[in-house]
Please model this.
Amino acid sequence: MSHISGKNTKPEILIRKLTHSLGYRFRLHKKELPGKPDLVFNKLRKTIFVNGCFWHGHSKCSRSKLPATNRKFWKVKIAGNKKKDKSNYIRLKKMNWDYLVIWQCEIKKSTTEKLSKKISAFLSG
Model:
């Protein structure tokens, strides 16, 4: 698992392409914002996080099932990630930034049209 990248994942690239095709322009992984969001829309003060279900502990998702080996380590690791995510979302709100979380399983299950509507509604609202 050490070879898994935190940036430029397939789901993230798909969301980038989709958002770009909707006419929105964005920055990537802005270090000044809590959590270094995947997509940053400076003028709109909005961000999008593309979260992997396993790494961010997506509840009620089959992809977030803990491995059979070393369960204690993974339980602590995922709980820490969830806590850090929550803290980052609170800090963003305090800075008057809005955020949208798109889950990996949501990308797999949804149609492009459904995701487009969700992203457009978030960015235009």
Remarks:
- Residues 71-94 form the longest helix (24 residues).
- The chain has four helices and four strands.
- Strands lie at 27-28, 39-41, 46-51, 98-103.
- Residues 71 and 77 are 10 Å apart (CA to CA).
